[in-house]
Design a protein that fits this description.
Strand order of the largest sheet of chain B: 8-9-10-3-11-12
Shape of chain B: globular
CATH superfamily of chain A: MetI-like
Order of helices and strands of chain B: EEEHEEEEHEHHHEHEHEEHH
Structural class of chain A: mainly alpha
Number of domains of chain A: 1
Radius of gyration of chain B: 19 Å
Radius of gyration of chain A: 20 Å
Structural class of chain B: alpha/beta
Oligomer: heterodimer
CATH topology of chain A: MetI-like fold
Number of strands of chain A: 0
Distance between the termini of chain A: 52 Å
Number of helices of chain A: 8
């Protein structure tokens, strides 16, 4: 099969895999970033019990391979009453897993802001949620954008593990084509190229965002 | 002229104790501040004077004793005889009469000077933007830096930053201003402009609690000076008497050291 034939035959299928990967990572990030922020705030809580729970969460997520998290949710979930399709499970697993990493990134960001700025706001009666939104987060951006983009890139690559629980994302599509065509090089090369393209676009977006927050 | 000082205390501190781990930083402090009184707290580093001020503002949760502002306990609530920490909302209520100025200004660097002053007006007092800006400009005018409203804090000198911090606190119409070493982080030639603003506030009758190393300010502006050492109040009184005829050896020694240094 020539490359042109290959693209004509499997191009649409590969693109559907690419969009599935994009969709999965987008929703996983929508879970991972807010949840990571909550965990980061708990890591700095005044209450030792909350700090301990948050720390345990981060350590468990960082210490467990994503595949194990996915197996636990997908095959173990039903015994806890969690019955979901493969893709939502994958999104949830990737989101929970990513939150552990985002928690550490955001904790470092929160820590970078002088405690005195927060005390000054408190003395003026500004509520904690508003302090977070107007004083801490805008100043954190500069610091957390580069590692966050990096983390999203890691999530995109980790999302390949979703193929094991049968989610038809990019890697799974590649494997499927390889099975059909008995060719290995072409499908996986195409898959690699598409991942690379996706990540390059994201990295470029990251650089643009970085410049933007630097001037803010 | 200064309004007559009322005899009823605005702030009452009773038996205040605070411990950081093994070290007891405040060992039972009793203090009263009357309306329009300017009270300066002096003493060596580590004497507990900043901790006292921060405990009054409840930036530190004190371990024992009372801080009472205008008849109400600050930072704690008594529930059926048991003391519990005030909630965030209650604490904001307790602090609403306080304005605080810090040694390191603590302006918000990503907001313009005017926005630093108006943020709490809009968020806490729910004042509309136009009116908040008007109040903000008025406060900046009061501390002599109206022209810097559109600048960012990093474009200002230390003295200017501290004056913005004072304007930010004043905008909320506090009943007491708490100053925590407001000139200690400034270059010597910038100290005067900040002390000038503070002196003007004192003359207008603002109640002020000032932790400071500026003996000249304490001597000329304060109504009462408190000397702290080792977590206790060692001596307290009229500045004329306290500086001219200190009673305790610790204060004599402290003043001598200070005079030798300032030659």
């Amino acid at each position: 099969m020539t490359t042109l034939d290959f693209i004509a035959t499997y191009g649409p299928l590969l693109l559907s895999g690419l969009f599935a990967t994009l969709r999965i990572c987008f929703f996983a990030s929508l879970i991972a970033i807010p949840l990571g922020l909550v965990v980061a705030l708990l890591l700095r809580s005044r209450r030792a019990a909350l700090r301990w729970i948050a720390r345990a969460y981060v350590e468990v997520m960082r210490g467990t391979p994503i595949l194990v998290v996915l197996f636990l949710l997908y095959y173990g979930g039903p015994s806890f009453g969690l019955v979901l399709e493969a893709e939502p499970v994958g999104i949830l697993g990737l989101g929970l897993y990513g939150a552990g990493y985002f928690a550490e990134i955001l904790r470092a960001g929160l820590q970078s802001i002088a405690q005195g700025q927060i005390e000054a706001a408190r003395m003026l009666g500004i509520p904690a949620a508003h302090i977070l939104w107007r004083i801490q987060l805008p100043q954190m951006l500069r610091l957390v954008v580069p590692p966050s983009i990096n983390q999203i890139i890691v999530l995109i690559k980790e999302s390949a593990a979703l193929s094991i629980i049968t989610v038809p994302e990019l890697t799974k599509i590649g494997a499927q084509i390889a099975n059909e065509t008995f060719a290995v090089i072409q499908p996986y090369l195409a898959v690699a190229l598409l991942y690379w393209l996706l990540i390059e676009i994201l990295a470029a977006l990251g650089h643009w965002l970085e410049r933007k927050v630097r001037h803010a | 002229m200064k309004p007559e000082k009322n005899d009823k205390a605005l702030i009452q501190v009773k038996g205040l104790r605070k411990r950081f781990g093994e070290i007891e930083v405040l060992k039972g402090i009793d203090l009263e501040v009357r309306p329009s009184e300017v009270l300066c707290i002096i003493g060596p580093s580590g004497s507990g004077k900043s901790t006292l001020l921060r405990s009054i503002a409840f930036l530190e949760a004190y371990d024992a004793g009372d801080v009472v502002f205008d008849g109400k306990l600050v930072g704690y609530r008594d529930d059926a005889g048991r003391r519990r920490l005030a909630s965030e909302k209650e604490l904001n209520q307790d602090r609403s009469g306080f304005g605080m100025v810090f040694q390191h200004f603590h302006l918000w660097p990503h907001l313009r000077v005017l926005a630093n002053v108006t943020e709490a007006l809009r968020v806490v007092k729910k004042i509309g933007s136009a009116e908040a800006d008007r109040i903000g400009a008025e406060m900046l005018g009061k501390v002599g830096i109206a022209a810097f409203a559109d600048k960012y804090p990093e474009q200002l000198s230390g003295g200017q930053k501290q004056r913005v911090a004072i304007a930010r606190a004043l905008a909320m119409k506090p009943r007491v201003m708490l100053f925590d070493e407001p000139t200690s982080a400034l270059d010597p030639e910038l100290v005067g402009e900040v002390l000038g603003v503070m002196k003007q506030l004192a003359q207008e009758g603002m109640t002020m609690l000032v932790v400071t190393h500026e003996m000249g300010f304490a001597a000329h502006v304060a109504d009462t000076v408190v000397f702290m050492d080792g977590g206790k109040i060692i001596e307290k009184g009229d500045p004329g008497k306290l500086f001219a005829a200190p009673e305790s050896d610790r204060l004599k020694q402290f003043l001598n050291t200070w005079r030798e240094r300032s030659i």
